[in-house]
Amino acid sequence: MGELQSALDALAADDVRSLAPRQQLDRITEILEARNRLDAQLARSVRAAELQQAPEDDGLKSMQSWLRGHGRLSPAAAGQLVRNGRALEHLPALAAAFEDGAVTAEQVAVVAPVVKEDRRTAALAQDIDLAEVDRTLAAVAAERAIAQLTRVVHHYLSRLDPDGPEPDPTDERSLTLSKFSDGTVVVRGQLDAIGGEKLQAALEAITQADRPRGDMRTRAQQLADAMVQLADNQLASGDLPFLRTVKPNVIVTIPVDDLLDPATGRAAATTGFGGLVSSATARALACDGSITPVVIDEHGMPLNMGRTKRVVPPHLRKAVELRDQACVFAGCAAPKYYCDVHHLQHWIFGGETSLENSALLCERHHTKVHHGFRVERDPGGRWRTFRPDDSEIVIGVPVPV
C-alpha cells in the first residue's frame, strides 16, 4: 500500500496542463485502467471482510453500514459494492478482466444479477454452462459499450425462464424523496422498462418543447426542469386525486410583513411539506396563485381566516395567453402552457391584476424577474428584457438549436 500511495503522489505531481491533447487522452486512458484495477481489489477486499464479519470489529452489523459510515458512501454505492464482491466469486473470468483493468465496476454491476442464487439454480437445472456464460459476458464487457452489455445480460435473463410468469412491473419500481433542512429534495429510484419508457417519453416531450435560444443548461438540468414542469402541468390541470378533501396544490405560508418587504428575504416562507423558501420565491408563486389571508394572535394561533382569492382569474389568463402566446423573456419561447402569469408591478405593491400589467413567463424566467431581471412592453407592443444593471438583452442573429 505504501508503494501505491507513492505512485499516486507522483501522479498528482504531474503538470497535466502542459500535456498535448493526445498525451492528455492517453493519460486518462491509463488512469481509467488503473481505477478499474483498484475497484477490483476494493470489491475483493469488501467481500473478504464481509465473509469474516469484519464490521463487527467496529461495532457495526453489516459491510454496507460500515461502508456508509467509514467509507462515506451513499447507501446505493455501498450496496452495489457489496453485491459486486459477492457476484465476482461466481464470475472468475469477469473478475480476471476486472483485475486487469479491462472491465469497470459499473459493468460488473450490470452482470451481477446473472449469478443471483435463484438464477444460478435455474441455469444448472437447464444444464447451462455458467463458465461459458461467464467467459462470454467478460468478453462483451471488455470489448463492447455498456449499453450492449446490458442488452446481452437482459437477453440471457429473459430466456433463462421463458415460460415463467411476467414479472409485476410494480415490483421493479421504487422511489424515495429525501429532504434536507433547507427544503431541497433528493430523488432516488428505479423504474421497470415500460415505466421508465413512459417517464422518458414525457420528459423528452417537455424538454424538446422548451429549448430557449442559447440554452446553457446541462442535460441533467433540462431533465430536472422537465420533471418539475410535468408536476406543474398536472397540478394546474386540476385532474389529480383529492388529498384529504382538497385538490393537491403547492402551499406556501409567509408573514405579511415579509411578503410586503421588497428584499429577497431568505428562508422567510414555509412550504406545505416543511421546506424553507425566500420571500421573493413566495411572491413569484403569488403572482399566479391563490391567496388566503389568516390573522394570527400573539401565541401563533389563527384568529380569523379570510376568503381564498384567485389572484389571476381564468378569463384574464386566457387573454394573456392569447396576446403573448409564449414566455416573453428575451430568447425564450417556452409554450404558454408552461408559463405563469407575472404581474409587471406586483399586486402586493399596488399593481393591478389586469392584461396591461401581466406577462407570460416560464418558471425559470419568472424566477429571474423576481431576482433582478425585468420585462416590459413598449408602446409598440414589443416585449423587452433588462438585466439587473438595466442593460437590455438584445437578440441578434438566431442561434441554431
TrEMBL record:
On the tree of life, the source organism's domain of life is Bacteria
Q: Which residues form the HNH nuclease domain?
A: 315-367
Q: Which InterPro entries match?
A: DUF222, HNH, HNH_nuc
Q: Could you cite one Gene Ontology molecular function of this protein?
A: endonuclease activity
Give the family per the record. Belongs to the Rv1128c/1148c/1588c/1702c/1945/3466 family.
Return the protein name. HNH nuclease domain-containing protein
Q: What is the protein's species of origin?
A: Blastococcus mobilis
